[in-house]
Structures
1.
Amino acid sequence: MGLLDNFEKGLERAVNSAFAKTFRSGLQPVEISSALKREIDTNAAIVSRDRVLVPNTFTVRMAQDDYDRMAGLGPALIDELTGVVQRHAASQGFQFAGGITIGFAPDESLSVGIVQIDSHSVKGEVAWTPVLDVAGRRYPITKGRTIIGRGRDADVTLDDSGASRKHAEVQWDGRRARVRDLGSTNGTQLNGAPVKDAVLEPDSVISIGRSRIVFRVIAQASGGAQPAGRRHDPTMWGPAS
């Protein structure tokens, strides 16, 4: 279950949860989700009988306090919102000109609890980028092998006494990924089971000591993409009443 599902199905009842404490007032992720879907619907353009084009690049602007809270969730919230956009477009039969990009930006002209969306279409191919998410930080995998460990020479450095200096590696050949333990002292787990060398599927969880590392493959607009059409004059939404 994703972050947005948690909010939608039980935020009121989770008064003692970390999320409830974080979002007791001000903007909430479900309101961003609704604003994005509304932005897509109001900017759908009929290109041909069988093609309705919608924006694929979004800037979500909000007050500084709201921005600080949302940024604290790390890349997981962006992933959830991207999924919302993809599913909503698919349900409506909409299409994108390229990969989906969503970014947050603080805006001092906005009051707490108000969200404003800027959107436009960007032509281009979808680039699939492998990443490792660790404790709210995202590490793109840009070479053949990425070393994970406690040592300073590791590509992904863990502040974890249960990790060896060079604990494990993730191999990426441009299409597929593998995880391999590098003879670590405490071993490596993949989705809760000990692993020495195995295929790494998207959204798999690598456990090293107390650290939880999630492997993802993110769809992004490829470099050099150019805007298609004008920048949309955004519409403002406040918190749901």
2.
Amino acid sequence: MITKEQFDKEIEIIISNAIREDVGDGDHSSIACIPDGVRGKAKLLVKDKGVIAGVAFAKKVFNYVDKSLKIDILIEDGSEVSYGDIVLYVEGSPKSILMAERTVLNAMQRMSAIATKTRMFVDLLKGTRTKILDTRKTTPGIRALEKWAVKIGGGENHRFALYDMIMLKDNHIDFAGGITKAIIMAKQYLKDTDRDLNIMVEARDLTEVKEILQSDGIYRILLDNFDYEDTKKAVKLIGNKCLTESSGNINEETIRHYAESGVNYISCGALTHSVYNMDLSLKAIK
């Protein structure tokens, strides 16, 4: 997994790029009609129901735009919210508040939607040993935000990107000439480059599970598009030799069945690629 330093750097890049994209050479609407030296206050208002996420990110954005802004947080990340709740107040230069407004709202609306959906899946898994994972099916440029939101919702992060895990999927296996060849080459690569990365291998059926198990040092086997019965058989075959993960068209109706099959993890791209933004707004207080 990526380090805290790497993650923090990703967040810094997201903020600077978002402000660059939105502000350009200036917020001319605010410059035109708001006098210098005026102070103002605004509230971040919830107009929906779910799990709030992105509060800590919002604070970073406001501080990036103007360190003199005063932020009073009333509701923390991961809390259940409903219509009419006030998440935070921000006070200071209205020009600065409005410069940060859209970046804050865009991020928090999406992050809250992801956290809400993740919490729903986490609740569906209660009583099992299975953990819910996100995937790399994220919005280009804001992966760190979306994976952060999954954590806030109670889920766990899969690998962050291509560089922090060896994950041998069907295309890698086919291009390499087979599962065993791909594993051997991956291990040799790690040795040659002195890298310490976990190796995960995708299986498309029980025959491939058996072949993967012939190699030592596999961190996790991904059971891709297995039905319930084959998932149970695979989990029994694998035992304690490595961790197991289910993936492939898993939704709120099927997730519990896969968890009860005994897998350690279930990965679900829908956590990040199929959500509806939570309705939030930033309103000036007169």
3.
Amino acid sequence: MYIDKLGFDPDTVPTLSFGELLKRIGPGIILTGVVIGPGAITTASMLGANYGYQMLWLFIPIFIMGITFMLSCYRICMLTGMPIIHAIRHYYGKGAAAFVGICLFFSCLFFTFGNISGSGAGMNLIFGINWKVGALIMIAILLLMYFSKNTYSKVEKGVLLCIMGMIIAFYATLIASGGPAAGPFFTGITHWQFPQGSLLHSLAFISTHAAITAGVYGTYLGAEKKWKKEDLFNGTMFADGIAHVITVILISGAIVTVGAIVLHPAGLKIKAPAQMAAMLKPVLGTFANPVMGLALLGAAFSSLLGNTQRGVVLLNAGMDWSVGLESKRVRWTCVACILFGVIVCFAYSGSPTQLIFLANLATSIGTPTAVFFVTLLMWRKDINAGMRAPRLLQVSMTVCYIFATAITIFALANKLLK
């Protein structure tokens, strides 16, 4: 039965060596660069500053949801031979695919708002200029680079250096501050509770770090990577999903912990980029502002490039249009999204940090919608026909859907009632 469905016996597929896995993985690492944007940095900083160690337990459902979403999407893609939204169209019709594509597009569009604000906040910390002026400068550079040839890889390498600098700075701060207090740290991981006023922060944090859009878009990146069905069984997709989730947690976990150590005892609340830079002052002193500025700028710029394309590709997939990154429709729709984002960001009168938080809270609209259809696909007998039913993954996907939907409804209803 396995051979009839796959064309080979999965039991005979050898597990790849560590070196071979490093060559085959890739989409998960790219998605980490998209996820760890200014929204992730901001929500993580807010969580540590506002609640100390109390919300560290959120990384447990984030890990479970993140790996479940990635592996479920990868499995469906490999068994059907179709990326997720194309599979939704095949099994549930054009209307369902269009609805999911539009929801995920708007989810990514809100991310774009946060990325534009984050780039401006980074320029403000580095050069002291108005954040709107800084954002315009970066948008101009982005558009020039967007239509250039053979330049994206160069930009990506420079951005990666900025993000690596941020990681080093936060872990250096952890070491310099003596590290987390063991008792409160483990209490924060083991005691699952929502302190008063934490629901919206928790929703924004989860929707940023465990977004279904990562798994869905990963199925389109997998096609670019030329993954084959054998990669479902030789460890490639599992390693790719684990690499994505672990790197996200390592980066964001350090930010939350530093916020808990440095900002929370002082009673500081994150309302401006300079307050996030304060987390690095124990190690960097007067260099804290430019280093945090580089971190925000690098994270925003890389996420702005990748996330905008992600949203447009998912929209086009839902509408059954071209999803090629080089197509004119994708490129010019990306430009339109960026220009629209500039208008929205500049019309907002509050702090760019607050806009980043609100934008990432709004991304939660896409998660329950897409997760619903991915869950349905996971339970379809015709997709799993001839295969051992992945009960653990099916149950985990169902639980994640219930959790994501419940926290979204509860948090938003709580906000509306107030």
4.
Amino acid sequence: MAGEEINEDYPVEIHEYLSAFENSIGAVDEMLKTMMSVSRNELLQKLDPLEQAKVDLVSAYTLNSMFWVYLATQGVNAKEHPVKQELERIRVYMNRVKEITDKKKAGKLDRGAASRFVKNALWEPKPRNASKVANKGKSKS
């Protein structure tokens, strides 16, 4: 950044923000090139259905987000554009996929083992009648 020439068309205060934005755009461009280098069918064949859904959702979200940014650069209020509803719809599906993934990771409860564990861990007092009967039988002999 120190060797960069500052353009007089915008305020100097936002130069760092614009440089960071330019770097981000370059990173997005590199990721898109990488993603586009592999055919979609080839990529999806290697993945299970849940992973395929994740790839599709991330792709749709990225595309719509980029369109949102484009609208903003054109002076359009993206908050009132249908792209906002589409982004929200995709976000709902992303949450559903996350719930499914979390359920798969969650431990399963073995009810039989849990009930045996609890049953053995609880203290059970001996019935009083059984001890008295045992003592009476011993004293009479």
